[in-house]
Specification:
Blueprint lengths: L3 E3 L17 H14 L7 E3 L2 E2 L3 E2 L10 E2 L4 H13 L6 E2 L2 H4 L2
Parallel strand pairs: 1-2, 3-6
Antiparallel strand pairs: 4-5
């Protein structure tokens, strides 16, 4: 059984220089609409696998002092609201072997 549909893979990665800022949220909504239309929105949830770089810790080592990266903040707030409203997961690809000091 399919439980999740991923829309893109790390589309807001900073190295993409905003290439997908205007298209990823409409794509997410389109996939959700298609699932609703075929009656699968309760079984299959849509999400966007993000890279951890959407989070900016600033100059702090405390996670609660951070925020979404400035260039993605408004979009990320909309995405998080959408995921929450649809009971979908907030997904982040974590690469500890890259993040280690």
């Amino acid at each position: 059984m399919i439980r999740y549909a991923a829309v893109g893979n790390e589309p807001l990665l900073s190295t993409f220089n905003g290439s997908f800022l205007t298209t990823i949220f409409p794509a997410l909504k389109n996939v959700q609409s298609a699932l609703i239309k075929v009656g699968l929105s309760n079984q299959v949830k849509v999400t966007i696998p993000l890279n951890a770089d959407v989070y900016d810790s600033g100059n702090s080592d405390k996670p609660y002092d951070g925020d979404f990266r400035a260039d993605t903040k408004d979009l990320m707030v909309e995405i998080v609201k959408f995921l929450s409203n649809n009971g979908a997961a907030f997904t982040v690809n974590i690469y500890p072997f890259i993040s280690l000091p």
